[in-house]
Amino acid sequence: MQTALPNERVIIEAMTSDLPESLAVIRDDFLALDQPDRLQLLLEFSGELPALPEHLKDHPDLLERVEECQSPVFIVVELEDDAAQTVRMHATAPREAPTTRGFASILVQGLSGLTADQVLEVPSDYPQMLGLNDAVSLLRIRGMGGMLARVKRQIALKRVAA
Amino acid sequence: MVLAADPSEKFAGFAHPERLVSTEWLAQHLGEPGLVVVESDEDVLLYETGHIPGAVKVDWHTELNDPIARDYIDGAGFSTLLGSKGISRDSTVVIYGDKNNWWAAYALWVFTLFGHEDVRLLDGGRAKWEAEGREYTTDKPAITAVDYPVVERDDVTVRAFKEDVLAHLGSPLVDVRSPEEFSGERTTAPAYPEEGALRGGHIPSAQNVPWAKAVAEDGTFKTPVELDAVYRAGAGLKQGDPVIAYCRIGERSSHTWFVLTHLLGFENVRNYDGSWTEWGSAVRVPIVRGSEPGVVPSR
Predict the structure, then answer these.
(1) Contacts of B49 in chain A (CB under 8 A)
(2) Which of A127, B57, B139, B150 could be cross-linked to B75 through a Cys-Cys bond (beta carbons 3.0 to 4.6 Å apart)?
(3) Helix axes A8-15 and A21-31, enclosed angle (nearest 10)
(4) CB–CB contact A67 B189 (8 Å)
(5) Where is the Rhodanese domain (chain B) (predicted)?
(6) Is the complex ipTM higher than 0.95?
């Protein structure tokens, strides 16, 4: 297992100085760990993915499939009625796809509660900042990039519709 | 071969029945000296959520691939990897995994590049083991590291490179991707970038036989008669034909390589692991669009 470069953290923090607090905390938690423990933390996130709220449970039509992930994962973003349009993200993915669940859980936890503007400004390469490239592989992390892109797209479309 | 082959009647009609074991057989033989069970999944965390007792994990991406170049690890790397997993050169290795053994078949194919003799697939993979309610554990297996010799990788017998495929044009090619990928129509939603290859379509004259046609509903391999119908009658492959199989990155096609080689007994089958992510981005190679195989351009 390759260890992180000593300056990895410095480089990444410089790249992402204005990341919202919630996402910065998650990133720091990952970067503080050795590679095998980063995988373990991703597994913990996977276990923490909340179930869909009642009003979405029986409405699979409201959720969008993330085609970039090989495992079936569905997401939906809701905007609250407040002035800031606070974002609530929900996702569902099967137990047999713990990595995908972990990615979804990171975004659900990191994006929910931010304003729509804040989410639209999240760097598209946020998934690459978690230091998981060696433990998980770049190809798999692309799936999380696809999820983030779809979150942003849903927000943009919902704003137009509102 | 350390452990005797699974004598299941279902396997008797296959060309190399010793390459498959049933879930029953595996349950009976778990823990026997000389047997190492390997889990190889698409999902890098699935093993950690629970695995067959004693099984070790081999990840195709972080362990079998070279970390820098687009290639597999070399003989020294393979020796270190297998030794650290407690696998000896003469171990009986049984590989299983998620997604109907996609990645298990891929790992088996990589083991074959290094000539590991006794490597088998668990028929039905992880899904069947789970469906039957068999035991899982999250306990880490106690591994005793062993010496595995440094064996030079054989890139000729079961592996094809782009140049080999160009030279092979005119002989049977099997494209095991989905019909949409084969025809080259867009598969991603509007406003999302097409990832992986710069062009869509397939290699001229390739027959499209999606890999999952080899698999029955319960995730096990179909019977010899059914497989014949798919590959001989359906795709027109004939005994003695040299065949090259490919997909997007060579993983689904190693599943088909396994079926053609070990179940149907084709003797000259290679897997083009560069597959569409290389061919679809390469300069000046012929490509056919649409659902027909198309013809090989004259050279």
Answers:
(1) 43, 95, 98
(2) B150
(3) 170
(4) yes
(5) 31-138, 173-288
(6) no
